Amino acid sequence: MLAAAFGGAQAQSAGYLLVHFTGESAQGEQTYMSVSTDGMHWSDLNNSQPVLMSTVGEKGVRDHTIVRSPDGSKYWILATDLRIASGKGWDAAMHHASTKLVIWESTDLVHWSEPRLVDVAGAIPNAGCAWAPEAIWDPASNAYIVYWATISPLNGIDKPRIYYAKTTDFRSFTAPQMYIDRPGTQGIIDTQIIEVAGNVGGFKYVRASGDGQITLEGSQSVLGAWTTIGDLSQIGLTGSMVEGPILFKFNNEAKWGLWVDQYAAGKGYLPLTSINMGSAQNWQVASTGSYNLGADRKRHGGILNLSAAEMSRVNAQWGGATPINRLQSSNFPDRYVRHSSFTVRIDPNVSPLDDSKFRIVKGLANNAGYVSFASVNFPGYYLRHKDFVFELAPYDGSPQFAADATFKQVPGLADTSASSFQAYSDSTRYIRHYAYVLRLDLVKNQTDRSDATFHVTP
To answer: In the 8-state DSSP scheme, what is residue 1?
Structure first.
């Protein structure tokens, strides 16, 4: 549904970052990220696990967009506050759901604030939702134009329309205003605008929307009049087949990308390319084998063009495949660290075996010399201590969780060929087992040292 607001940042040309969700699974409606160097071949970050988790509102997010400030000093992720996996159903999601957006903020694309809720649509009479938020910097307004779809009755017709508000900080917003209303009973969702700066067709901006088709329009200003360019039915893709368009420009090329979500077939995104933003007929479906979207199914997200420094930061934090390991007790070698009903202990003959499998990833609180333990069979869950006792819990994005789930791997206190794990939040304490339960304790004697020593095994 969404893509980047460029502002003054179009010089970014080293790669791309995609922020998205994957579907209605238990962890699918969270924030996933992928990167690409060419815009066509993508690699999932964080081992295909969520990078950010929503702990506010409905505790699920969809329809992400990512925005860079004009000076490049800040970034924001906006998303729909919605979790269909909770079982609420689509009618409730359309007519009795959240009127708020979920927003994260960062200065480096790596360290993100805790999620916050902003009620952008609450002032719309009988608003039923606030879906598919987008944002673009508008020089004429000297502000970001944030726009989204709300379903509500107006003039006797209950349907989705696009509204907008202005903001300079993604905290305070003006009152919602009508932005796009199609004639009659025709609704509109999934609008996304990109600056094209006088590309063929004579437009400064182009937008794509889901309005029964995927309709393309052009304009000289964000809030001005728009001219219809055409729709994708001209190349055989109708609104009954695809939704959620993403528009972006390929780096260092006079070429554009348009991704559409094949929602009817449940297949996720299909890439299209064009060299003429002034024509709807110029779009071509990418040939099979010319693209690879990675392991995760990509749905309704946003693409940000990256500089070399930005690409390096996100890859350093979340890139690369991390091997799967087990933690074997040094003094009880038949026992391994495992989670059981989200408590953590050491057991022999672990069943199911996946309960004892973890990825040792870069520390959530500090990625330089620290590690965190990510569950294999519960994506997005990590080992963390709470009141000095360990649990397996979903990462909520908070600094407290990150600190409690971060450790320094050091030579084993009882066997230097093994490892011990020192708490990031209290360097005097180590992970150890006590009565077979995993704890965070002071180490005072040889028994403590032995209990705090583990072998990292494949």
So the answer is: -
Residue with tokens 């025709």: 186
DSSP 3-state of 11: coil
CA distance 421 to 409: 5
Residue (of 120, 50, 107) closest to 80 by Cα position: 120
Element (H, E) at 92: helix 90-95
Say what the pTM is: 0.82
- Closest alpha carbon to 36 in 21, 22, 18: 18
The answer to whether 96 and 89 have CB atoms below 8 angstroms apart is no
SS (H, E, C) 216-235: EEEECCCCCCCEEEEEHHHH
End-to-end CA distance of the chain, in Å?
A: 40
Q: What share of the chain is helix, strand, coil (3-state, %, to 5)?
A: 10, 45, 45
Give the 3-state secondary structure of residue 180. strand
- The CA distance from 33 to 24, in Å, is 17
Q: What is the pLDDT of residues 214-273, one digit of tens each?
A: 999 999 999 999 999 999 998 999 999 999 999 999 999 989 999 999 999 988 899 999
Give the model confidence (pLDDT) of 73-105 as tens digits.
Answer: 999 999 999 999 999 999 999 999 999 999 999
What are the angstrom distances between the C-alpha of 421 and each of 276, 397, 412?
Answer: 56, 22, 8
Structural tokens at position 436: 């077979």
Which of 151, 102, 148 minimizes the C-alpha distance to 128? 151
Q: What's the DSSP call for residue 313?
A: H
Which residue, 137, 136, 110, is CA-closest to 309? 110
The β-bridge partners of 206 are 194, 218
The separation between CA 255 and the C-alpha centre of its own chain, rounded to angstroms, equals 25
CA-CA-CA-CA torsion for 29, 32, 38, 43, nearest 10 degrees? -110
Q: Are 204 and 222 in contact (CB under 8 A)?
A: no
